[in-house]
Amino acid sequence: MATSPRPLESRFSPVSQIVRRRLLPIPGDVMVRVGDRVQPSDIVAEASIKGQLHPIDLARALKVSARSVPRRLEVAEGQSVPEGGTLASVRRLGIGVRQVRAPFGGTVQGISEGIVFFRKEPQVFRLRAYLPGEVCEQFPGRGVAVRTIGCLVRGVWGSGDEGSGPLMTVVTGPGETLTWQKVLLSHRATILIGGILEDPRVLFRAKRFRVSGLVAGSMLPRLQAVCEGLGLPVVISEGMGRIPMAEPIFEALRSCDGFPAVISGTDRDGRSGPELIVPLPANTKAPSQPVVRPLEVGASVRLTRPPYLGAVGTVVSLSATPQETVIGTRSDGAVVGLPDGRRVVVPYSNLELLG
């Protein structure tokens, strides 16, 4: 069978084996072992992060000289102080007692020139599994890798952190605009699937109603800053502008309506990027195809550059020599059959595998 000279990455697979690394930002303790079954909210590792050091100018706050501050202290170096605890005080006639209190719990690290250096209490960073599945690898002191079987959609753009909840398709077709009226209070803790995102009110309403995340085919570029400011997990599957979601992706997600899913708008592990994962039953058989594999005749592909941006087609043949493209250049590529019957030459770099 003819294949492309270089492998292509599949950004969508209705059923695949998915492995995600979950790593702490600093060394800590791993709470699970290889072979353990985990759920998205399970804590798999945790670490204690040293609190920030804050200088507090006692002399200015008490309105005294720096030399007199040691006489006003009510704490000592190395002492732990709860939030609201008194650090120093001064009594003035006719005014009463002026006090400086700890703005948060912490430890006195040092005192110099009328300034107390106060370190905030350590914060415990808890790392959750993100995926339901099996721990397939452990990285001592750092984290684990979790394996699951599911439907995978990788986005070309994303924002926000991570979220989870049942899928809810709120449009009737992949090219339908998602309007703010379609975002309801009943969608709280769900992941919404839409076609085209144009209105910032959709994002504000989703944030207000505590929607877990939003997946759309495309979005107007001016909404990028809104997404990043809100922190709502958002994944865009096709690109910026008004591009319908690829039909195979939309139909696969619509068929999973009500299924629990996880969404990530960030590239946390440096490898996976923005994504939506719909875990499937553990006994589901996943194909052994790798995520990156050669392009073959008959493969379903998505076109990623104008004038066919967002179109989905089937590979008819693979060119052995450079062919002329629609814009007049010559390039190695594939002949792709489009749904309207046209056959177009597309450079390999402008193709993504679907499934």
In short:
The protein is mainly β. 10% of the residues lie in helices and 47% in strands.
Task: Give a structural overview.
There is one protein chain. The chain has 355 residues and is mainly beta. The protein has 3 domains: 3-47 and 127-279, no CATH class; 53-121, OB fold (Dihydrolipoamide Acetyltransferase, E2P), CATH 2.40.50; 297-354, Roll (SH3 type barrels), CATH 2.30.30. It is built from 5 helices and 30 strands. The chain has helices spanning 58-62, 69-72, 200-208, 224-230, 247-255, and strands spanning 3-23, 29-30, 37-38, 43-49, 53-57, 80-81, 86-92, 96-101, 106-112, 115-120, 123-128, 133-139, 143-154, 157-159, 162-169, 177-178, 191-193, 196-197, 213-219, 234-240, 260-264, 275-279, 292-296, 300-303, 312-318, 323-324, 330-331, 333-337, 343-347, 351-354. The protein has a 19-stranded mixed β-sheet that branches. It is elongated, with a radius of gyration of 28 Å. The model has no long low-confidence stretch (mean pLDDT 88).
Mean pLDDT: 88
Note the total helix count: 5
Structural class: mainly beta
Share of residues in helices:
under 10%
User: What's the end-to-end separation, in Å?
Assistant: 18 Å
Number of strands: 30
Shape: elongated
Radius of gyration: 28 Å
Percentage of residues in DSSP E strands: over 45%
Which residues sit in consecutive blocks of at least 5 with pLDDT less than 50? Answer: none
Instruction: Sketch the major β-sheet.
Output: 19 strands, mixed
Number of domains: 3
